[in-house]
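Attaching the record inline, Q. Sequence:
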Amino acid sequence: MNLPQVTDDLMPDDLVDVTLVCAGDVAALAALQLARHFGLPCAEAETILAVGRGLVASHVPLKRAKAAVSLMATLGVRLAIVEFGEGPGLEVFDLSMRLTDPGVASSVLQKLRALGFASGDVASKFHGPGGYELCNLTRDRADGLLREMRAFPGVELVCSPQTEARYDVFAGPRGNRRSMALILRHLADIGCHACDPWPALAVGLDRRMLAHLDARFPDHGLICVNHKFQRYDLTLTGLGSVSVQDFADFLTTRGHAPYIALEVVTGRRGLRLESGLTRATALQFLSDYALIGLQVRADFVHSTEKTVKMSPVKSGFMPIL
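Structure, as predicted:
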């Protein structure tokens, strides 16, 4: 975490500062609530939200500050609680870059090197489990990169504030069963569990948990990927509760020959239905297919080197904040 968040030993009536981390897309609608909660003139609240960052209120009881954080979050405004006098701090961002059009790779690399974002051979990193990750960027630095990359079609750039980032843990290419069992037992002990049928070994870790994992098992060999940076393929594995006729109709609407698809599924090879989905979209698809009654598996994409279409949406610049 990069904001100096309050520690657990503070009492509910201790005084803290409240800072604005991100105003959101509908911040103007939240000005009245922000003003009411902290006793600010409405014009001042509007100014704070327009700026998008900075100190909101000082000497605020911790209990009241926490209530404000929860309330404003429902309106798309992210506040942070910091110890009195610590200041607002700087929000730090991580970015993931993927190429939906391999033909722009050389131009993109040239631009990144000119901007100081790449050195040496980084081409293979675009195909990694989290894409080409650029970490610990200030807001201005991240915004500057987003602006520069608008000139390139076939580039997908995802931005994630570190303060809200969550990570899933996947098995890596190395490691032995004994050490893996020990790591998984420890992750479970600290509240990090798998979420069947999700393919991750543990889900929803924050940066503090990741730091703990690295310190406790420095050579764990696991792959830890930000939720926003993950990509998934969905594979049809069985008919489930769907009739053979409905199954055939479903496959026909998706452009598959029913007899071929049925042979693939019954032969346990599975049939690829979707490719390059974001985590949120993959979860939605799993839910939708489960309602239909089909058996579907989500496969985490460890490498996208052979994948041209990285996303179910049209290729192009995609800033996701």
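The mean pLDDT is 80. The first strand starts at residue 15 and ends at 22.

More tomorrow.
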